[in-house]
Amino acid sequence: MKMRRILSLDGGGIRGLVSCLWLAGVEQALAQAGKPGLPQAFDLLAGSSTGAIVASGLAIGLAPIKMADLYRDHRHAIFPGIAERLWTRAGGLLSAGVSAPKYDARGLEQVLKQVFGDARLGDARVPLLITAYDTVSRTPVMFKSFNAKHRDLPLWEVCRASSAAPTYFPAHAMKIEGRDCALIDGGVVANNPTACAIAEALRKDAQVDNSRDLVVLSVGTGERTRSISLASAREWGALEWAVPIIDVLFDGNTDSVDYIARQLVGDGYFRMQEHLHIGLDDLDDTSSTNLIALEFMAKEYLAKADTQKMLAELARQL
Asked: Of the four, 40, 103, 232, 300, which is 20 to 30 A from 5 by CA?
């Protein structure tokens, strides 16, 4: 199975909206070049966390704009407001205590079931790779639509597992290959799953001999610029680091994978990413103001001459 052309999608919570808008720009560039649209232009789709949701949507034939509507229309169900959170958390204080996850995931699960219905991982029209992490065995999990042992897994559950960000959502229980697993966010393994996808493409049976033969589009969700001061980094303990450490870990592995992929693939590697203004970088800010700002940032990035030049070259190579 040849996997020369790779599309990889980062995690980033509500900022998956940015990825969807950028992918719409990719589709436009492909159309202008007379090339097939998404996902047909790629041999392998990879996603982590919110990127897993977008990649899975593309894999079953949903257009990027349709996926963008998921974030616009269902954002409050996925990330409920404080009043609803307080109500649901009140019922869980006895069982989970004050340190329960910020969201109970019922809204997220409802949305995923609505979007993916009865679809199975094996229903993906293009080979699909989704990352997660099993806290029971303490090992990464690579869901693969082309793995016979994974084909019958419900697609909504795969996405639920990959998007279970620690402190935000509870782990998701699944049985995989006969094992009981407690799965958390794929960002713990690879918030940017590009390196995982490249490794898959270079397997002996993938018909790709050299990483320089690959064409890889890696799509981010915006890069944080909010600093953590020296004083804070020196003085914070477990309580203060509890939530920020998730963002730091996700950002760190995203940037390191970008460096690795750039060195491995060379001129066939394309990365869509933009710096986020402070205030636009939260995973769960579903306010109308934030969504408008994210959309403006995404469209402004697409309009840049450098971005248009990059997309034209990507379309030529695909």
From this structure: 300
